[in-house]
Amino acid sequence: MLQNNKLEEDSNQNPRVTWEGCSVLLDINDGDRLVFARLTAASSLKIGNKNFLLQPLIGRPFGSLFQVENGKEGPFLSPLSITEGDNVEEKGDCQINDECKDNRGLVDNNTAQSLTGEDIDEMRRQGATGDEIVQALIANSATFEKKTSFSQEKYRLKKQKKYAPKVLLRRPFTRSICETYFKKYPARIGFLRVDSLSLLLSMANVSAHSDVLLVDMVGGILTGAVAERLGGTGFVCNTYLGVTPYPVDIVRMFNFSSETCRRIVQCSLTDLCSTQNETSVQIGQAGDAIGTDNFVQEEKSPLCSESMDGTALSSEHGMLDLMPETSTSPVTKACKTPKAGEKASQEAINLWKENGFSSLVIATPDADAWTIVKELLPLLSFSAPFAIYHQYVQPLATCMHNLQLGKMAVGLQISEPWLREYQVLPSRTHPQMQMSSFGGYILSGTRICSDDQPQLK
């Protein structure tokens, strides 16, 4: 009865609107700072030296824009319509014309601004809004009118970020989560870039109603991406070597429903290979020559550790700030979210042993790819695709060579994704000045039947 109530509640939940206990991605000042937070009545966000309650964000649609305003009880987050937020950009775009201005005659000697800090504090005490302070700074600048339209817009945005910061409420999904982690802490997700992640899922043919076998040692971003693409169908089986599952804390940020979380299971390699061969059984035991201790140590490494770096959205700390210096305040205990990664049932394990998995996806940046592939490949059904990610090419080259020698797969290829971002602005469209030059490597192929391989029973 309780499970039926949970399913009914999930079905009635509007995924386009925030609710109490959901995870959100807060984009402050157009990407200057990114914060993962869990919305509760008591959760707060620190901007500058002020704390702002996140309660106004509950019940708002994703994509809503908020601006810091000064009220009688202190600063607060006020909803801002998109049209109001775009007025500044539209106003700046209208000023872009063929002017005969340049900045050669401007000297930065800190004498152009006549408005002092005391004057700004007095305006705040009188209840002036951030936009009013920005307009006052522009009016009291002796060099603003002499600047080009581009310089004026840059000056306006700089002051707006300081005196009237804006917060964009974003929905956390695969792309936004991956881009956020890759921008700030790429080592936590094994330097897995968003285009590499999408190529990894496509090469493994992850689609609806698939049973996908995973080895996720990148914090759970791969598990969440596969579950999101399955859309509540099929199963995601996250396997591991040894006795301790690899952490998948990032899955909590996806706001999956109870039905989707129920389809994310974990199963040790020992249980999956118990009827295959005895060598696979010995792999899962501690102290084996394969180096199981190294994998257990990986679970304690800063890559995915919750206790060392706080990457998880724990119920005690409802906020994760992806900045070099953490500037968020602890919040009260948030609402419970559905837990993903329960142990797979024996019935499902027996079915996978009989029919095999439809896809295999591996992301083990700090482990030997061939050691894992040779144990997991027999678990795939024949003609099933697989894709392996690694941040270096040599482990994948060794794995590819061994697969060719053993005649275990066909269509083997190593891909290196390449991504270039463009700035798209009026009269200023060009590639970004700085871009990522490295996104890892992906080995893909298709499993085939061979006389030397153990057969699925």
From TrEMBL:
Single Gene Ontology BP annotation: tRNA methylation
Keyword tRNA processing applies: yes
Keyword Nucleus: yes
Pfam families: Gcd10p
Keyword terms of this UniProt record: Nucleus, tRNA processing
An example Gene Ontology CC term for this record: nucleus
Compartment annotation: Nucleus
PANTHER family the UniProt entry points to: TRANSLATION INITIATION FACTOR EIF3-RELATED (PTHR12945), TRNA (ADENINE(58)-N(1))-METHYLTRANSFERASE NON-CATALYTIC SUBUNIT TRM6 (PTHR12945:SF0)
Protein name per UniProt: tRNA (adenine(58)-N(1))-methyltransferase non-catalytic subunit TRM6
